[in-house]
Design goal:
Layout (H helix, E strand, L loop, with lengths): L8 H40 L5 H37 L2 H7 L4 H39 L11 E9 L2 E9 L6 E11 L2 E14 L2 E11 L4 E10 L6 H4 L10 H13 L5 H15 L3 H5 L13 H28 L4 H24 L1
Antiparallel strand pairs: 1-2, 2-3, 3-4, 4-5, 5-6
Length: 364
C-alpha cells in the first residue's frame, strides 16, 4: 500500500494543474458577470453626480473588482473542485486511481495543496489590494461619488474611559498635540458609584493630561454646583484615544486592525466585532482549503450508476452550507452573541470534521 502523502509526482501536477485552470476560469467568469450586474445597479448613482462620466465608471470597476474577487474566491474554489472531480469521475480516472491502490486522501492531496496556495494568494491579495480599495471606495460612496473631502480632523460624539471615570466630548478637533475637546463632560466615579459631574466648554492638553478652564462641578451627594477656575483630568490619556473614529475591518490590514483594536481597548470601547473580523481575515482565505474536502463526495462512486449528479449536488450543498454557517457565525460575533475566535473559526472546524467524517465513512 502506498502510504505517502502524494500518490506520484506526475499525478500530483496533473490534478493540481487541472484544478487551477478550472479555478481561474470559474473565478474570471464570476467576476465578469457579477461586476457587470453590480455596475448596472450603481451606474445611475455614479453618473448622477455632475461631471461624472466614463472615467468614474472605470474607477468604480477598478475599486469594486477586488472586493468581488475576495468575496467569491471560495465559491470559485468550490465550483472548480466539483468540475474537476466530476470530469475525473466521468472519465473513470478516479476508478483507475483507486484500482492502483491510491487512497481517497491521496486523490484529494494535490487539490488540497493547490487550494492552500490559493488561500495564501488570497490572504496576500486581501491585505495588499482589497483593504486599500475598500477604504477608498467607502470614502467615495460616502461623498455620493463626488470628490472625496479632505479629513478636517473633527471627530464627533466621543466617549473615553479613564479607569472608573467616563469622559464625553461633543467634538474633538485636531490631532496629536494640537487636539482639543469641545463641550467636555467628566463623570467622576468610584467603584461604579457616581461622585460628581464636571462640565466645561473646552479642554486642552496640559501636564501629561487634560485641563478644562472655567469648569463647573456638580457634587452628586450634596446636590450643589461649584465653579472651578480649571480642572485637570485624564492623566496619561493620549490624544489618539479621543480621535479614534469608527473602524471598518474590511478596509484595514491585519496590522492596522490590531493597532486599532489596541487603541480602542485602551479607550474602553467594545472591540468584539473587530476581533471577530481580525480572526476572519485568516479563516476566510483558508476556507478555500475546505472546498476539496467538502466537494469530494462528487469524486467517488460509479459514474454509470446515475448518481453522479446527485453527488455533485450534495457536494455543492455542503459547500454552500459552510458559507451560510460562516456568515451566520460572523453576524453573531458582531452582535456579541459568540466570542470572536469562535465566530471566525467554529464553521471552519465544524465543516472540516464533517467533510473528513463523510470521506472516511464512505471511502476509507
Amino acid at each position: 500500500m502506498n502510504i505517502s502523502f502524494f500518490a506520484s509526482r506526475t499525478m500530483t501536477f496533473y490534478m493540481a494543474r487541472m484544478f487551477l485552470v478550472r479555478f481561474a476560469a470559474v473565478l474570471a467568469a464570476l467576476v465578469i458577470v457579477l461586476m457587470a450586474l453590480d455596475l448596472l445597479g450603481e451606474s445611475g448613482d455614479i453618473l448622477a453626480y455632475p461631471g461624472n462620466g466614463d472615467a468614474q465608471l472605470w474607477l468604480y470597476v477598478t475599486l469594486r473588482t477586488p472586493q468581488i474577487i475576495a468575496r467569491f474566491l471560495p465559491f470559485a474554489a468550490l465550483l472548480a473542485t466539483l468540475i474537476t472531480f466530476v470530469t475525473l469521475n466521468q472519465n473513470s480516472e478516479i476508478i483507475s486511481m483507486k484500482a492502483a491502490g491510491i487512497s481517497a486522501h491521496q486523490i484529494l492531496a494535490p487539490l488540497v495543496v493547490a487550494s492552500l496556495g490559493v488561500g495564501i494568494v488570497s490572504f496576500t491579495f486581501n491585505e495588499r489590494v482589497v483593504a486599500r480599495a475598500t477604504a477608498t471606495l467607502t470614502a467615495w460612496q460616502d461623498a455620493d461619488y463626488g470628490p472625496i473631502p479632505r479629513d478636517r480632523g473633527i471627530v464627533p460624539n466621543v466617549w473615553v474611559r479613564d479607569g472608573d471615570d467616563l469622559i464625553h466630548a461633543a467634538a474633538v478637533r485636531g490631532r496629536g498635540r494640537q487636539a482639543r475637546l469641545d463641550s467636555v463632560t467628566i463623570y467622576d466615579r468610584d467603584g461604579g458609584r457616581l461622585i460628581s459631574i464636571i462640565e466645561g466648554a473646552r479642554a486642552v492638553q496640559a501636564g501629561g493630561g487634560w485641563r478644562v478652564a472655567g469648569a463647573s462641578r456638580f457634587d452628586v451627594a450634596k446636590g450643589v454646583t461649584v465653579r472651578l477656575a480649571s480642572f485637570d483630568f485624564a492623566k496619561g490619556v493620549t490624544a489618539d484615544r479621543f480621535t479614534l473614529a469608527n473602524v471598518d475591518p474590511a478596509s484595514k490590514s491585519i496590522v492596522q486592525l490590531r493597532t486599532a483594536i489596541a487603541d480602542l481597548d485602551a479607550a474602553g470601547r467594545p472591540t468584539g466585532p473587530l476581533r471577530a473580523g481580525l480572526w476572519h481575515k485568516l479563516s476566510g482565505p483558508l476556507s478555500a482549503v475546505l472546498m476539496p474536502l467538502l466537494a469530494a463526495v462528487a469524486a467517488f462512486g460509479l459514474a454509470r450508476s446515475g448518481h453522479l449528479f446527485v453527488r455533485a449536488v450534495i457536494g455543492m450543498a455542503l459547500g454552500f452550507a459552510y458559507f451560510v454557517a460562516d456568515n451566520f457565525a460572523l453576524a453573531m460575533g458582531n452582535l456579541g452573541a459568540y466570542p470572536p475566535f469562535l465566530a471566525a473559526w467554529a464553521p471552519f472546524l465544524l465543516f472540516l470534521l464533517i467533510g473528513e467524517t463523510v470521506l472516511i465513512r464512505t471511502e476509507e
